[in-house]
Amino acid sequence: MVKGQLRIALAGNANVGKSVIFNQLTGLNQIVGNWPGKTVERAEGTLFFEDHKIRIIDLPGIYSLSTFSMEEIVSRDYVAVEKPDVIINVVDASALERNLYFTLQLLELEAPIIVDLNQVDFAAKKGLRIDVEKLSEALGVPVVPTVAISGSGINEMLSTVIAVTSGEKKLEPLKVRYGKETEERVEALEKLVYEKLPQICSVYNARWIAVKLLERDLDVSGKLKNFENGKDVLGYAEKLAAELEKIHGEPSPVVMASERYGLANRIAMEVTIVEAPPRISLEQKLDAVTTHKILGYPILVAIVASMFALIFVGGNFLSAGLEFVFEKLIFYVEGVLSSFLPDIATELVSKGVLDGVVAGITIALPYIVPFYIILALLEDSGYLPRAAFLMDNLMHKIGLHGKAFIPLMLGYGCSVPACIGCRIMETERERFLAGFVVILIPCAARTVIILGLVGRFVGLPAALALYAFDLVLVFVLGRIAFKALPGEPVGLIMEMPAYKKPSIRNIMMKTWSRTKDFIYIALPIIVAGSVTIEALSLSGFINYVVEAATPLISGWLGLPAATSIPLIFGILRKELALILLQNALGQQGMVIQDLTSIQMIVFSLVTMIYIPCIATIATCVREFGWRKALATTIVDIALAFILGGLAYRLLSLVMIT
Amino acid sequence: MRGRRRRLRKKSNPRNLENVVSLTCLCDGEMAVIAYTVGGFGLVRRLAEMGLTPGVKVKVIRKGLLHGPFEIEVRGVALALGYGVASRVFVRPLRADSDG
Ligand SMILES: Nc1nc2c(ncn2[C@@H]2O[C@H](COP(=O)(O)OP(=O)(O)OP(=O)(O)O)[C@@H](O)[C@H]2O)c(=O)[nH]1
Ligand SMILES: [Mg+2]
Prior knowledge:
The structure holds two protein chains of two kinds.
Chain A: E1 5-12, H1 18-26, E2 43-49, E3 52-58, H2 70-82, E4 86-92, H3 96-108, E5 113-118, H4 120-125, E6 128-130, H5 132-139, E7 143-145, H6 154-165, H7 180-196, H8 198-201, H9 206-214, H10 218-225, H11 230-248, H12 252-271, E8 272-274, H13 282-290, H14 296-338, H15 343-381, H16 383-396, H17 405-410, H18 415-421, H19 428-440, H20 444-457, H21 460-484, E9 493-495, H22 504-538, H23 542-556, H24 564-569, H25 574-587, H26 597-609, H27 614-624, H28 626-656
Parallel strand pairs in A: 1-3, 1-4, 4-5, 5-7
Antiparallel strand pairs in A: 2-3, 6-8
Helix pairs in contact in A: 3-12, 5-12, 7-9, 7-11, 14-15, 14-20, 15-20, 15-22, 15-25, 18-19, 18-27, 19-21, 19-27, 20-21, 20-25, 20-26, 21-26, 22-25, 26-28, 27-28
Chain B: H1 2-11, E1 21-22, E2 31-37, H2 41-49, E3 57-63, E4 70-74, E5 77-81, H3 83-86, E6 89-94
Antiparallel strand pairs in B: 1-6, 2-3, 2-6, 3-4, 4-5
Bound molecules: guanosine-5'-triphosphate and magnesium ion (MG).
């Protein structure tokens, strides 16, 4: 029998392992990796444990209950307002003091928490052992040690959750108290809040409100303004905060943070046993080289270039093999089909459906899968925050800071999650600036075109040059956008996680879930596009489109008029542009190799820039509003055609002389 | 820019300014104790919440190229700070022989 449903949230600092635990519990595939700020939206899943139905909520990482970027507000609101039955506070055992700072805030909120002491294996590697009993005693809540990546401790944690919700295990949470001067003021303010604002006290506890007001929390004081007595309370809070600041000579939030950290430090010192002195590990040496102020840059370039080279070699090999297999298969299936279907239907099925499927599998998949594996490796190792560190200076030139380089790198995979990932930026303006440049980064689908067309038929150096050109473009456009959207850029403040050996299981899971998305979402779109085009061409309608586009496509870009079709359909999925290019040329009695090198480069350049695919446009609308999405789309189209035409003329000049 | 920074420092005058330098004056591997941070309300609070509170010990792990970011260790965690942020953090350097 299923008893009532429980709601349990995973909360804690960034990069402590919340999503790994969430995936373990729910069997879902939340994004996991080794940099802070992966989870930017809350995710939910269901789990049945013993006879309980449990809803698990994975939250973005936060460092405090005062909030900064968009994803942190999600977490705070969930924890403070929606009040789950239990909060599993995931804590990184290897950085206990900083993690306890957040735990103390949860205790202040009087939230029902249990502490999941995660990454005990990593702490052990650093020579640290945590006395679990003592920590549990100090905090007054259960503490369960876990190693999320191997799943050890997860069951014990669940049992503890049940024991707490059933009342079998009582929480006697530590009461966080401040130093004398601060404590007096907190208590005085708490009393006033309790008397004057009973409505608020039914939602939040009065002491927490008092603490937040003393800290000058804008969100909480904004909430009070609407109440009748709110003004009095705010006035009193302001007076107390000013007194505190006078005594300590620091802003009140710093005073309070100092005191909380003092307590966190005492607890951490008490329960941490240093078993072995820290020693220089391989990871640290790797860190020193890859983050080196000079060496770091050639290494970054080498990593990115070899990533594409590897994908190119692997992709070509796989593609050739698959083509060989499928050619035979298609021939056979066509024979079978034509024996019982009318000619026109056979044509539609074989040219539309079959060619679509085969092209998806033999052209796109071989490049995409190796790509996903390499990207997952980069994400899991902890290299991304290092790249962000190295690029901080350069990113400032386009009004962003180093952290924006992370979604930029993810953009090479797919623009959609990369765009959403821009939420790690602190302000609205930076989020849009980052999103704008992220869209210009060639995603895996565009890589299929660049490597599959230019790389294969013109040469790898030409393809790499396209990528390099794209980066230059990103910086030039970013710079222009920065000038157009003025504002003081925020500085970089980011935790730098240690390098970790990527877990094979994580990599496989991630590659599979992304490949699955390709098969379930992209492949049907590719097939639908290919069938539509086949129907259009059988009906003769296509000639009108081609004719109408001729001046632009042939006159300005110097491409065969037939390429207008793949360019138009590329909006659905960028891979389609390459797949349909084959078809479209075929109908004119041409093959891809009939295109000149210049035409291939121009075609790839245009598809690389001209328009984000519909999925990306939809994401932009959701993230930035339709105005900005529309503006971005128009700018990108105009830019693609201007640059395409210029490239055609320039390259023609260079190649003739 | 420079004028603004000076004004902010003046505002925090009651503090003891002896031996205090900006974090950006330190070299790789040097240790120091945080004196105070200056800047907008949000920045000061954020830094405090990341553990950069007065009196805490920090170590410069590395500096980026030119006016690049700083990587520091504080409370057992490595933190990257942009140059602009680092220049708003003021510290008292610890001499190599007295840091313990
Ligand atoms: N050694 C070790 N690594 C772990 C453990 N748990 C998680 N990790 C690694 O820590 C990193 C972060 O894990 P995530 O689950 O993505 O972290 P998160 O808390 O969801 O992070 P955000 O969503 O960014 O806030 C990943 O690289 C994991 O493989 C553990 O118990 N031991
Ligand atoms: Mg997460």
